Amino acid sequence: MDTARLDAFLGQLVGDLGAAMTAALVCVGDRLGLYRGLADGGPQNAEELAKRTGTDARYVHEWLCAQAAAGYVTYDAAARRFSLDEVQRMVFTDETSPAFSLGGFQIVDSVYKDEAKLTEAFKNGRGVGWHEHHPHLFQGTERFFRPGYNANLTTAWIPALEGVEAKLSKGARVADVGCGHGASTLVMARAYPRSSFVGFDYHEPSIERARTLAAEAGVADRVRFDVARAQDYPGDGYDLVAFFDCLHDMGDPVGAARNVRRSLAADGTWLLVEPMAGDRVEDNLNPVGRMFYGASTMICTPAARSQEGGFALGAQAGEARLRAVLEQAGFQRVRRAAETPFNLVLEVRP
Question: What phi and psi, each to the nearest 5 degrees, are found at residue 131?
Fold first, then answer.
């Protein structure tokens, strides 16, 4: 027995167990406003934070200690006070920050709530549709992806597409397919006030939420949201069709791609954003791949298996498999327009 390797492996497991427990505690802090109370009130002890947030001081003390042990909260031993530094505030309290991450923990929370039905799917081979998940998945997804869209969509991804930003600035027709709560749609609508937008998603509660958010944002006069699947959403002559992190969730991605091709204007562009991945398993055995393979196992692959079509690309499909789907649907021009550590951005044209 290689005892050094065993000790190192057990140390890794201790870290993972602590991370798993911390994820639940982050969700508690999110729902109870503990991070916000800590940010607003400055350095505090448990009694002060509990009073500010209407919670019990004894529980809050344990929560604060656990968060400090994780490095999520800063502890001043001399003053016996807890606080959030600038980075911690960006991650846990500032929803406009590109680093805001509470939505990711909400997604993890939904996975644990849905574990029993997903375990059953492992045995019977059937899928678990997006609509069958706990509502925290829908809320968490919007909160998790919105910071990245705010940071990249109109500042880097659209400008990287040939001629698209000029069209949007003058006034273009845009379809955002698989839009969920409409975070990506609203980012584009605010940036390009002369263009009109329609968001499509098969999940009716998400569409209803998107409509509410559009009204609150004051853009409902040129943004609408309709219930429709990617394979048969209506309309044609779109200057831009966008898919954000959703093609790999579809049982029939080829059918969806064919519908995009049908719906595009002659000189239209498909903006396809997918999770960053290499084409080989060994390319993705890293922290980002770990996160995406986990989400793919519990969310993306079950969603695809619940639909007709027979595909289950998974969240780590890689560019080569995506290109094969696009070529099968009749697209001839595919270019990697941009990328981030988490995103693969493809410009697709007929």
Answer: -70, -15
